[in-house]
Write a structure and sequence with these properties.
By secondary structure, the chain is an alpha+beta fold. The chain is built from six helices and seven strands; from the N terminus they run βαααβββαβαββα. The strands form two sheets. The chain has a four-stranded antiparallel beta sheet with strand order 1-2-3-4. A three-stranded antiparallel beta sheet has the order 5-7-6. The chain is globular and about 40 Å long.
Length: 164
């Protein structure tokens, strides 16, 4: 069901605020099947924007999925292989957009000779990562403004040993 109009591009300075909206909607609506309303409010109390959000995105390689120029998803990659953010707008979830973003992120990591990708993945992205060959290292409880949420420390080895 993937729309053919989806393109994956590098994040530009003008994208940050729109990606904040994608993040907010993905958490507040898209994660409803995995986290209760209190947990989702703690995770995303407001739409991220402003200098700290812009810096967070700019400090990593951030790829954006666009549908007719509108950002509908994004994923980040830090120089050490950490995937900090991976979100798709709820209206576009389960259409393969996360997989498209991930394929490009892994390609960038391989080009940079990063040997290991890792993340603290939500229930929402855990399935996508497992489909891509990731392993759950451990389940953990994190706390946001006094509310506990479950996520998963996950990794995928990209080095030569992982390819054998």
């Amino acid at each position: 069901m993937l729309e053919t109009s989806i393109e994956i591009v590098a994040c530009g300075p003008a994208d940050a605020d729109q990606l904040g909206i994608v993040f907010f909607n993905a958490v507040r609506t898209g994660a409803a099947g995995f986290y209760d309303a209190r947990q989702r409010r703690a995770w995303a109390s407001r739409v991220p924007s402003g200098p700290s959000w812009h810096s967070r995105l700019a400090a990593q390689q951030t790829l954006v999925a666009r549908n007719f120029e509108r950002p509908v998803g994004f994923m980040t990659l830090a120089d050490d292989g950490y995937i900090d953010l991976a979100f798709v707008d709820p209206a576009y979830q389960r259409q393969g957009i996360g997989g498209l973003l991930y394929a490009q992120i892994e390609a960038l990591a391989r080009e940079a000779q990063i040997e290991r990708l890792y993340s603290e993945a939500s229930h929402l992205v855990r399935g996508l990562f497992e489909q891509q060959g990731w392993t759950v290292i451990k389940e953990q409880q994190i706390e946001r403004v006094g509310v506990k949420l479950t996520n998963f420390v996950m990794e995928k080895r990209l080095g030569e040993a992982a390819q054998d």
